[in-house]
Write a structure and sequence with these properties.
Layout (H helix, E strand, L loop, with lengths): L7 E5 L3 H14 L3 E4 L15 E3 L2 H5 L4 E5 L3 H5 L2 H7 L4 E4 L14 E4 L7
């Protein structure tokens, strides 16, 4: 059992490993996982991945404990992170590609760029 059950959210396009990790996390801890693929939404899930697909950023972030950003879509840089962080259970974002490192983010959002210092 997961010591601290969480909803893990993954936003990805070419980073299949993030989807694989999300599926593995679900299989290990049975914690809900959502995957956002706005350009490839095929029903409630895809074969081999125990995740629910979401078509919008607010939909995937609502109630999230740990969103993981693994893409470079401009929609993420242009997003209203103040409003989006209010939807999250835990306002934190793990940026696997450091895509938002130069984007102004609200102080309410804990930004965690991989391989860099965490900006509280």
């Amino acid at each position: 059992m997961c010591p601290a059950p969480a909803r893990v959210c993954v936003t990805t396009n070419q980073n299949a490993w993030l989807k694989h990790c999300a599926g593995a996390y679900f299989q290990l801890y049975q914690s809900p996982v959502k995957v956002m693929r706005p350009f490839n939404v095929y029903g409630p899930g895809q074969p081999g991945v125990d995740a629910v697909l979401a078509a919008s950023l607010p939909e995937v972030l609502a109630g999230a404990d740990l969103p993981v950003l693994g893409t470079g879509w401009p929609e993420f840089r242009e997003a209203n992170w103040a409003d989006l962080s209010a939807l999250m259970r835990t306002p934190a974002l793990l940026d696997a590609r450091n895509y938002l490192r130069d984007t102004p983010l609200p102080s309410s959002l804990r930004y965690c760029p991989v391989g860099r210092a965490v900006l509280a």
